[in-house]
Amino acid sequence: MNTDPLTPVLTKRWLSPQSWRISTYEKLEGYTAFRKALAGTPEQLVQLIKDAGLRGRGGAGFPAGVKWSFMPQNEEKPHYLVINADEGEPGTCKDIPLMMADPHSLIEGCIIAAYAMRSHHCFIYVRGEALHCIRRLNAAVREAYDAGYLGRNIIGSGFDLDITVHAGAGAYICGEETALLDSLEGRRGQPRLKPPFPAAAGLYAAPTTVNNVETIASVPFIVNGGADWFRQMGTEKSPGPKIYSISGHVERPGQYEAPLGTTLRELLELCGGMKDGIPLKFWTPGGSSTPLFTAEHLDVPLDFEGAAEAGSMLGTTAVQVFNETVSVPWAVMKWTQFYEHESCGKCTPCREGTYWLAQVLERMVEGRGTEEDIDTLLDVCDNILGRSFCALGDGAVSPITSGIKYFRDEFLALCQDARERNATVPELVGAQQ
Amino acid sequence: MTIAPDKSATAETPVPEGHVRLTIDGEEVIAPKGELLIRTAERLGTVIPRFCDHPLLDPAGACRQCLVEVEMNGRPMPKPQASCTMTVADGMVVKTQLTSPVADKAQQGVMELLLINHPLDCPICDKGGECPLQNQAMAHGRADSRFRDRKRTFPKPLPISTQVLLDRERCVLCQRCTRFSDQIAGDPFIDLLERGAHQQIGTAETADVFDLASRTSSGKPFHSYFSGNTIQICPVGALTSAQYRFRSRPFDLVSSPNVCEHCASGCAGRTDYRRGRVMRRLAGDDPEVNEEWLCDKGRFAFRYAQAADRLRRPLVRDRETGRLEEAPWTEALRVAAEGLAKARDGKGAAVLTGGRLTVEDAYAYSKFARIALRTNDIDFRARAHSPEELDFLASRVVGTNPDNGVTYAELENAPLVLCVAFEPEEESPIVFLRLRKAARNKGTKVVHVGQWSTPAVRKTFGELLACVPGGEAAAIEGIAEHATDLDEQLQQDGAVVLVGERAAEVPGLFSALHRLSSRTGARLAWVPRRAGERGALHAGALPTLLPGGRAVTDADARAEVERTWGVEAGALPTEPGRDTAGIVAAAASGELDALLVGGVDPDDLPDPALARKALAAGCFVVSLELRPSAVTEYADVVLPIAPVDEKSGSYLNWEGRRREFSVTLEGTGALPDCRVLDTLGVEMDADLFTQTPEAAWDDLSRLPTRPQRNGAPDVPHAQPPAPGSGQAVLATWRQLLDDGSLQVEEPHLAGTARRVVARLSKATAEGLGDRVTVSTGRGSVTLPVEVADLPDGVVWLPGNSEGSKVRASLGAGHGAVVSIAAGGER
């Protein structure tokens, strides 16, 4: 068994000089997998991905092979593959580095996935703010066309594929797959009613699969390495390597690719421990939408099951680490302000709820909160969780409910301070202090 | 005492094909597959609160007010589900707010959230008292709010048009209005802007408030003939009309069902009045006709009846001063009767009724002409018309009804609808909505034979078969040879051809359509523009037809009518009378001694100048009118009559469906035409038995429909006119909102009319500059030029709009050759 805690797969080329060039990529095994894939059948590829147990890396962890198999067998309508590269979750920074450092692994993955799903047009929807990344992707797509890996009759296989890189316009909601599709069609980015699901009626009402960047970039490795190799990493239900994006109060924040199921304790060792030795206070396992963890959870295996069992979610493995200098209510307020700003407005609970929650938290942090506000926060969260149209609302309440769950005292302290301050103000008009 | 059965009755009931059995609040219910939970619950009597849900709009699931708990296959779903988006399934167990504390709390929670940013201005809000938010907040909300922070505020109100005003603070963002605009009307009207708590409804113009830079690229100007519907379906007071806002409270109003008098769509509506004055009109709910929609003309154009110059007393022209003076009814009726009787016994009297009468009133005119004036000189067609049209109406239209003719439902299910010389959005807006619905939901193909890609062509996802005005008949004749795919589609079951009033201006078109319909089997329906035309046709207000479609030349039919009317055998005139043009020409040349005119504007007639000449020619003119008009100017006797709100009656809509309505405003003293004519008849020793609309209908009902189905029109189509240099062929029809006499006193409505422009092809507009002057020997019209996809050598003008009164100014109509020249700078 490999004792090295790191398993560089997706990240293995990142440190090579000009790793984003097609020449570098091809020197390092690049564009070998799609040749094998195109020699096989779409059904074989879907089965391979199912066998490998690859789960979606966008947060929900849905088995990718199963998702691919939802695409209809016929081609009555065009099939579309859409890559969700709208990485916007606070703390999450894996897809953009991947596309910056190794865009061709994504493109090769797209070719294989598109072939498996009988799609001839793939869209990569990139977060609009990531301008440098968009340019690099476009350059890589051009290189791939020039090499004959995209376009008509790819390497003489008879398979055609076009890739379009599309820049979003800066909306968190467009990371939600149906909102992304609306946005890609040129509409307002707001989530669609499901059913119909994208595999039945997605982009332009045609069968569509939306996959995360990291998911698709894993595909060439699986084709080359096989399902068994992939399953050597990670756990039974969550196999494979995963890019853990560690940010915050650690000595060496950054991307650490390790098998799924790695714990924070192990990750902290990899990144040199807590910054300046100040103890850990709280952390998110997978971005701000996943409920907080504390030092109690250092040994929780960070895979889809482990995180869920401990009361959170694996999410995007965006590990944000906060030390004891950080106020939980303040951090929660900042996150809530983000959700208030990014709520798309379609449904009432998320639109109005985040507006309300942000104001209550701001008031609390300013020292004008009351103890009742804590109950109100929790009850409003209860009225949002599971009541909103999409998962944005659910994510928005995670920091608040988990923050109060583990750090109620801090919230209470803010309110008590406020009460004491107010208590010194004489109630009777004109009375002396 | 009622004893509830031990076991639900449905338990043993087999589930019919296409249905499922589910449980709602412990009660088993069988529901058709595909039904939304919220409707199934409603059928059980459980009203789940909702805002965004509307039965005629696509589900949105946006407001989240209708959450319920659902269990599928014995497994509870983890989250409460929106009952407005979830369809029923077999074995589903649903718990609404009545039995589920989770659903109840979810609903209370959403309601509280909806109210945090809602202003507490119910006491001054138009919706207060009929507000779904207010009502549902009382039923499903908390008694007080926990919200202590800042409400979101917006400047208000924001005018979306001259008629519709938006209060963004009151808006709960249910998106009914935007979905209506997008799905039902298809207009670039309003949409969502911004996001999160700043999300708001707005237009291309209001969006510029936030981004002045986008002004140059701002969207299309606001245009919708259906904007008023958004006000009616708004579940809060966010959308109000300039016409009604702050005028009254719902609980002060008395509501009365009505039928719209503006076009032949036959919309069911509701009139709300207070202290004898109509305050507003709303759409009624008639799934077979207008569903729950109304066009803005039907909704807002009713103040003509409240105009200050309304005629309330009879007027008789003073022989000495030459002026009209008020007179008692008895005197006015005596003078009118004497004049008409004298004329009848002299060179004759004729009747022009116009197309806006109820069936009952038209019948009274028809009967009055035959037995009081002993003439067949009667015609309801106050517009361009032709003998070919008469044959068409007699052979193909009269007597059709929803049981044997084309209906709205058939339009909705037709594989193909061919619109010929018919502009549905302008001439029959609800037909247009149904065509759009058919095309959008069921893929109906809509083909328009016209001159340019009008908004209706685009919004019905239609196809334009463009031809030169006057070339429509040739185009129809050419389908078999040149458009074989269309020809095949016309032969499909359920294919429909709709033809409009403009067809009367195209020689041979009715004949061509009759042949097309006979050959392909496509059903053919006539959609007149005015509300009264189908009824007047049925009532026999035509020179060739007696009531029920009986030919005046048919001796048996005449005898039947004579017996029914109790007049002596042979009393009815035997020869066909003159049509409108014939009557006008005869009066102008002194061949008639009297005219009885009911609600006709000379400027609507084919030759307005000749019509004025006829009125001024010295014959005795009796005018039945609501307000002073060009006819009353020349009238010897003016008899005031009641507007629709003040009388009862019925219209036949284009389907031939009877649309009955009762009196809204009682006791105003205004009399319907049929009553006035009945009394006038008595003065002339003729008993009409039309004292009341009800009596008139009963009398007409004794003459069941007996149309003559032979004598179909057979006129060869003419060659389309060929304009010379500096000339063009005129295409023209009326816009829905224009200078029509029933739209007076409505400045807010007028502001939403379409821009008045002349349309030409790019090549034809070449060298004309920004404005074009269209002229004939009679006069000219000068309008801004808009380039459209018309055939070259054609100019389109709106028929009766500000600055473009085609008949009055040019004395010409659709298909005429006119001169065009640069119109100079404005």
List descriptors.
heterodimer; A: 433 residues; alpha/beta; Rossmann fold; Ubiquitin-like (UB roll); de novo design (two linked rop proteins); five-stranded mixed beta sheet; 12% strand; B: 826 residues; globular; metal-binding (chain B); Mopterin_OxRdtase (chain B)
Description:
The complex is a heterodimer of chains A (433) and B (826). With 433 residues, chain A is of the alpha/beta class. Chain A has 3 domains: 22-232, Rossmann fold (3-Layer(aba) Sandwich), CATH 3.40.50; 241-323, Ubiquitin-like (UB roll) (Roll), CATH 3.10.20; 328-421, de novo design (two linked rop proteins), CATH 1.20.1440.230. Helices cover 44% and strands 12% of the residues of chain A. Chain A is built from 16 helices and 9 strands. Chain A has helices spanning 22-27, 33-39, 42-52, 64-69, 95-101, 103-116, 131-146, 177-184, 198-201, 213-231, 264-270, 304-309, 328-342, 348-365, 371-384, 391-423, and strands at 80-85, 121-126, 162-167, 208-212, 241-248, 254-259, 280-284, 293-294, 318-323. In chain A, helix 2 packs across helix 10 (213-231). The longest helix of chain A is centred in the C-terminal third of the chain and has 33 residues, at 391-423. Chain A starts with 21 loop residues before the first helix and ends in a 10-residue tail after the last helix. In chain B, strand 24 (545-546) and strand 25 form a beta hairpin. Chain B starts with 18 loop residues before the first strand and ends with a strand. Residues 209-219 of chain B have low confidence and may be disordered. Classes of the chains: A alpha/beta (433), B alpha/beta (826). The interface between A and B is medium-sized, with 34 and 36 residues.
